[in-house]
């Protein structure tokens, strides 16, 4: 996975998480907002329903008192008209609010049709009351009053039921709102009870006999209800509620228990049949005062709830706005970070990594990214540029080295070719095995490097003699090889061109005298086979003593010492004459033979050579040489030749010799 | 490669090599040449430690003798049988005096 992909995935993940969190938060805020708005609507409807209930309670009590208490009906309907209008308006407003909250409230339509039918029921009840009011019969009017009381109370019960439904459908989760809603419900109950009692109280004051007992029971039941409501309100009030609400509760409670409750008790316990219009007026005044206090409490709590709801709504709206803002900023920041990281990190790193890949492939023509930044990317870029510069330098050095190496190789190849050519020439200068005037010759020749300081030759003199020599130039390698070629030429020419009377020791002495002082010296055995007599002669000049192999099987050394050629100009030489009959062989060898070293550093030695030759006296010359070569190779093992090895064997052939004898 | 010691005005040059061959000869020649230029002309070449001399080695020993000139005196001491064999084969035993030890060489030179 590339760094770019990693960062992209991480940033996308971060953005996604941010958006998810924002959605969850926003949903929370929106649902809070929706609940609050529904509560607002629900509250508004309930407030209007309460206002309508209050208005209806007034109208109920007022109408009942008018109908039940007053004997004449002339002025009936005067104050009732205003109360009726008030109640109608409240009901209309409640319907209007419901209409507005249809979308939010689940049972709005149901409640609305209930309200419309409630309006119709109210109109029907009012019509009955109006009709009864015109009747002179007090009994009829009392019965109508009782019906009215029951009918309106039922209506109000319905309104209260709808209010409770609304409240239950939208029970607030906020503890303060919940407490306030409960308080309002209980105050509502109180209000209804006080209003009901007002009417029953008037009835009690104006009624006689058994009806009275029933009314006392009703009032006492209401008192129990109201005490319970106050107790419930007391349970809801705590310090979390606002000061205003608590003060309103305390005030209403005081008015109820200090003024209303005692008067109610007095009313229940008062002796019958002493009713006065002042008593009724005092009772209604006390009731109204108490109702006002409860209404005031209701309004205070409503106002508090409304304010709190408004606060919650605005808080939810603000939180929603903040979350939206934070999300937008977060998304913008994520995009910005991505852009900056792309521009400042991912793209430069991609360029550096591309350049590094190309450089690793030895493509030094690839441009290094531009330098100039001070951060880590800048450091990497600078390092890469330095690396490239070094790589170019190294490549140049390598190229130069390769050229030098190539030149060396060329020179070496040239030298080797020259040496191989020289070796070929040197080999070509050696005589091939042959029989020359009854003398056969064979040779062994192993240079320690390409070319050797050893050489030998066999020449045929015009007078019939056969000359031969072997040379070993001091040192080895190219210088010794060149000198050996010069020596071979000099000796060959000297042997070929010598006068009949010139002795071979004179030839060696002359060459020794004339040998340039700055050339290396050489050792040699130079000899001749007499064409007329069965003898041979040699001059030994610092060279190992040759071995004479008799045809009958004896082996002996010829000579013991002599000065090398080219060392001391005044040196004297002498020749050694030895019998050399048919089948006799002379083996001449360079010191490289006896100084061939074994892996442990021991020399092959003269005695070992002597033994090997003695063991092979019966063998023909080529076989003898093969055996010698094999013995030397076996001795040497894996060790390299340190000196040139050469052997020359000359032999007087039997046939020729026999022929000469006959 | 070399160490020197003077006994009774005779300079003894001790060759501290087991082999005096083509690979050592040029350096030997230079070193001994320098000693000859600086010091006396009576020399003993101590070959006690040398086991083998090849043709190149022999060549430089002769060149030392030539360098000393006619007034010089160069003796060989401590040569083993292989080295003696080389000296006799090339008749260098007739050119150089060979002694068993440097002391013997010095004593011989005093008389």
Task: Provide the helix percentage of chain A.
Answer: 55-70%
Oligomer: heterodimer
The radius of gyration over CA of chain B amounts to 13 Å
| SSE string of chain B, helices as H and strands as E | EEEHEEHEHEH
Supply the number of helical segments of chain B.
4
Q: How many independent structural domains of chain B?
A: 1
Mean pLDDT of chain A: 87
CATH-defined fold name of chain B: Transcription Regulator spoIIAA
Question: What's this, in brief?
Answer:
The complex is a heterodimer of chains A (662) and B (111). Chain A has 662 residues and is an alpha+beta fold. Chain A contains 15 helices and eleven strands.
Explain what you see:
The complex is a heterodimer of chains A (662) and B (111). The two termini of chain A are 107 Å apart. Helix content of chain A is 67%, strand content 10%. Chain A has helices at 3-69, 78-100, 108-133, 138-169, 175-206, 209-236, 243-269, 277-360, 376-429, 478-497, 504-514, 591-594, 606-615, 621-636, 654-661; strands at 434-436, 439-446, 454-460, 466-473, 522-529, 535-541, 547-549, 555-557, 575-579, 585-589, 645-652. Chain A has 15 helices and eleven strands. Chain A has two domains: 3-328, no CATH class; 433-661, PPM-type phosphatase domain (Phosphatase 2c, domain 1, 4-Layer Sandwich). Chain A is α+β, with helices and mostly antiparallel strands. In chain A, the strands form two sheets. Chain A has a six-stranded antiparallel sheet. In chain A, strands 3-4-5-6-9 form a five-stranded antiparallel sheet, with helices on one face. By secondary structure, chain B is of the alpha/beta class. Chain B has one domain (2-110): 2-Layer Sandwich (Transcription Regulator spoIIAA), CATH 3.30.750.24. Chain B is built from four helices and seven strands, in the order E-E-E-H-E-E-H-E-H-E-H. Chain B has helices at 25-38, 55-68, 81-89, 102-110, and strands spanning 2-7, 10-15, 19-20, 42-46, 52-53, 73-77, 97-99. In chain B, helix 3 links the parallel strand 6 (73-77) and strand 7 (97-99). In chain B, helix 1 runs parallel beside helix 2. Chain B is globular, with a radius of gyration of 13 Å. The model of chain B has no long low-confidence stretch (mean pLDDT 89). Chain A binds chain B through residues 472-476, 520-521, 523, 542-545, 560-564, 567-568, 571, 591, 595, 603, 642-643, and chain B through 21-22, 25, 52, 54-56, 58-59, 62, 82, 88-91, 95.
């Amino acid at each position: 996975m590339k760094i770019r992909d990693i960062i992209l995935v991480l940033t996308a993940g971060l953005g996604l998480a941010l958006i998810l969190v924002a959605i969850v938060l926003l949903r929370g805020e929106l649902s809070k907002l929706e609940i609050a708005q529904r509560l607002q609507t629900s509250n508004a409807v309930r407030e209007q329903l309460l206002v309508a209930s209050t208005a209806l309670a007034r109208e109920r009590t007022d109408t009942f008192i008018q109908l039940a208490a007053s004997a004449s009906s002339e002025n009936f309907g005067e104050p009732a008209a205003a109360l009726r209008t008030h109640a109608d308006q409240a009901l209309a407003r409640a319907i209007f609010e419901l209409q507005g909250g249809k979308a939010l409230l689940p049972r709005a339509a149901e409640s609305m049709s209930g309200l419309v039918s409630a309006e119709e029921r109210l109109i029907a009840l009012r019509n009955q009351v109006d009709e009864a009011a015109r009747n002179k019969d007090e009994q009829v009017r009392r019965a109508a009053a009782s019906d009215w009381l029951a009918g309106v109370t039922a209506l109000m019960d319905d309104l209260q039921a709808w209010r409770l439904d609304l409240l239950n459908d939208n029970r607030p989760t906020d503890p303060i709102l919940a407490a306030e809603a409960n308080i309002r419900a209980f105050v509502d109950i109180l209000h209804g009870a006080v209003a009901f009692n007002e009417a029953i109280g008037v009835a009690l004051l104006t009624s006689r006999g058994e009806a009275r007992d029933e009314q006392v029971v009703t009032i006492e039941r209401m008192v129990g209800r109201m005490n319970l409501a106050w107790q419930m309100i007391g349970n809801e009030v705590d310090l979390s509620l606002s000061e205003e609400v608590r003060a309103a509760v305390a005030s209403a409670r005081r008015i109820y228990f200090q003024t209303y409750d005692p008067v109610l008790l007095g009313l229940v316990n008062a002796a019958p049949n002493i009713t006065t219009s002042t008593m009724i007026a005092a009772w209604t005044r006390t009731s109204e005062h108490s109702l006002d206090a409860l209404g005031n409490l209701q309004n205070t709590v409503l106002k508090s709830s409304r304010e709190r709801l408004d606060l919650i709504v605005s808080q939810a709206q603000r939180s929603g706005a903040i979350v939206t803002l934070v999300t937008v900023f977060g998304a913008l920041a994520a995009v910005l970070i991505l852009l900056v990281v792309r521009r400042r990190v991912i793209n430069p790193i991609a360029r550096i990594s591309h350049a590094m890949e190309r450089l690793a492939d030895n493509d030094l023509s690839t441009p290094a990214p531009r330098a100039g930044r001070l951060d880590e990317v800048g450091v990497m870029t600078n390092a890469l540029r330095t690396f490239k510069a070094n790589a170019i330098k190294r490549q140049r050095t390598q190229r130069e080295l390769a050229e030098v190496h190539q030149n060396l190789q060329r020179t070496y190849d040239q030298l080797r070719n020259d040496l191989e050519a020289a070796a070929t020439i040197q080999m070509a200068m050696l005589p091939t095995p042959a029989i020359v005037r009854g003398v056969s010759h064979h040779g062994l020749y192993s240079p320690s490097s390409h070319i050797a300081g050893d050489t030998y030759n066999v020449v045929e003199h015009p007078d019939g003699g056969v000359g031969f020599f072997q040379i070993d130039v001091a040192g080895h390698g190219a210088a010794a090889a060149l000198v050996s070629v010069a020596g071979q030429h000099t000796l060959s020419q000297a042997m070929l061109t010598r006068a009949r009377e010139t002795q071979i020791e004179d030839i060696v002495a002359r060459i020794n005298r004339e040998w340039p002082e700055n050339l290396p010296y050489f050792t040699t055995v130079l000899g001749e086979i007499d064409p007329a007599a069965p003898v041979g002669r040699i001059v030994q000049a610092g060279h190992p003593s040759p071995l004479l192999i008799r045809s009958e099987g004896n082996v002996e050394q010829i000579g013991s010492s002599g000065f090398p050629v080219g060392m001391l100009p005044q040196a004297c030489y002498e020749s050694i004459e030895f019998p050399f009959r048919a089948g006799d062989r002379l083996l001449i060898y360079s010191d490289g033979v006896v100084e061939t070293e074994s892996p442990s550093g021991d020399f092959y030695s003269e005695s070992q050579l002597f033994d090997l030759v003695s063991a092979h006296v019966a063998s023909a010359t080529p076989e003898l040489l093969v055996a010698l070569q094999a013995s030397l190779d076996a001795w040497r093992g894996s060790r390299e030749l340190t000196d040139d090895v050469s052997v020359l064997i000359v032999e007087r052939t039997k046939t020729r010799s026999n022929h000469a004898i006959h | 490669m070399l160490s020197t010691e003077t006994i009774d005005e005779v300079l003894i040059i001790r060759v501290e090599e087991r082999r005096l061959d083509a690979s050592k000869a040029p350096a030997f020649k230079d070193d001994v040449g320098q000693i000859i230029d600086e010091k006396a002309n009576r020399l003993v070449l101590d070959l006690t430690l040398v086991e083998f001399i090849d043709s190149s080695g022999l060549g430089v020993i002769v060149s030392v003798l030539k360098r000393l000139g006619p007034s010089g005196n160069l003796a060989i001491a401590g040569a083993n049988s292989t080295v003696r064999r080389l000296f006799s084969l090339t008749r260098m035993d007739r050119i150089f005096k060979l002694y068993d030890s440097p002391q013997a060489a010095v004593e011989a030179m005093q008389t």
